[in-house]
Specification:
Elements (H helix, E strand, L loop, with lengths): L1 H21 L7 H14 L3 H9 L5 H12 L1 H18 L4 H28 L6 H16 L1 H8 L21 H4 L19 H120 L1
Helix pairs in contact: 2-3, 4-5, 4-6, 4-7, 5-10, 6-7, 6-10, 7-8
Length: 319
């Protein structure tokens, strides 16, 4: 029994990993990849896994980029999720000034992360349109503002962009109406004894107010720290990306230079080969001329010898 449980657990883990990988596949190749994986699971006898894989729906380009961001940058994504939790907690208790400060920070963080998602998509061969970029930003805003949206993104299997709520959770007991002082109604009768607060009750109320104020200050401090840390890490990642881009450009430049030098060397080699062929032909022609001249010289020498012999013979006959 235990081995069978182990196999089931292993198969479940395998199909989860397969689905994670599938949702980082660029949308144009999603369906083909899905059918390939479903067929492999079915061939292996895992009918339920095959059904789950086949049921996966192709994500939009923006949803795919958001999934890619989560899978490619797990540490940054986890910090982003933690920042969302801290911001949601802080928004429930902060005053208007604190909310304004955190709003600026979260806008910067969302903009930086959405650019990072666009860079990852472009590196994978798919440039995001302006509309898709806006969908990525909307998804990230939703992740910060809404716990359900954060849970959906954390799966890494978004099929479409997420829609952020109109605003972050409203601060508890800090609505504009609650903060607006009101005039006390005129009373013609003296207040009852039960309406007069005792000194101990007043102190207890003040203590509760102080504790709530300290709690809000602590939550604000944590949210500020989390937002600044997220911004710092994003700046570091952008600097690393800039360094990588520069290194890649230098490598491309060196490759292009080497290619041009290799082409020039090949041209020189071809010219040298052609020159060698011409020299071989000229050498052969010169050797042929030399041989012909040598043959002509030998023939002339024989003829001269024969002529001298004939002269000597005739001279001897006359004597």
């Amino acid at each position: 029994m235990k081995p069978r449980h182990g196999r089931r657990a292993g198969a479940a883990s395998d199909v989860e990993a397969v689905l994670d990988d599938l949702y980082t596949t660029p949308p144009p190749g999603f369906v083909a990849r899905r059918e390939e994986l479903a067929l492999a699971a079915r061939t292996a006898g895992r009918a339920e896994d095959s059904r789950r894989i086949h049921a996966a729906r192709r994500p939009t380009l923006a949803a795919w980029a958001a999934n890619l961001l989560l899978r490619s940058q797990p540490e940054e994504s986890q910090r982003f999720l933690e920042l969302g939790r801290a911001l949601r907690d802080a928004y429930r208790t902060l005053d208007a000034e604190g909310i304004k400060e955190l709003s600026e920070q979260r806008r910067r963080v969302v903009a930086a992360l959405s650019r990072q998602a666009a860079d990852l998509a472009r590196a994978a061969g798919h440039r995001l349109s302006d509309a898709a970029q806006q969908d990525v930003e909307a998804t990230l805003r939703a992740v910060l503002a809404d716990e359900d949206a954060a849970d959906q993104w954390a799966t890494g299997r978004l099929e479409g962009p997420l829609t952020p709520p109109s605003d972050f959770p409203s601060p508890t007991g800090t609505s504009t109406a609650a903060r607006t002082p009101r005039k006390a109604p005129k009373r013609t009768a003296a207040p009852s004894a039960s309406a007069v607060a005792s000194p101990s009750a007043t102190r207890a109320k003040d203590d509760l107010t102080d504790r709530r104020r300290r709690k809000r200050q602590e939550e604000l401090a944590r949210a500020r720290k989390a937002a600044k840390e997220a911004e710092r890490r994003l700046r570091d990642r952008r600097a690393e990306r800039a360094d990588a881009d520069a290194a890649s450009q230098r490598a491309r430049d060196r490759h292009e230079q080497a290619r041009e030098e290799a082409a020039a060397a090949e041209r020189q080699l071809q010219q040298a080969r052609e020159e060698l062929e011409r020299a071989d032909r000229e050498q052969q022609e010169a050797e042929d001329r030399l041989q012909a001249t040598a043959d002509a010289l030998a023939q002339a020498e024989r003829a001269a010898g024969e002529a001298a012999d004939e002269v000597e013979r005739l001279s001897a006959s006359d004597g």
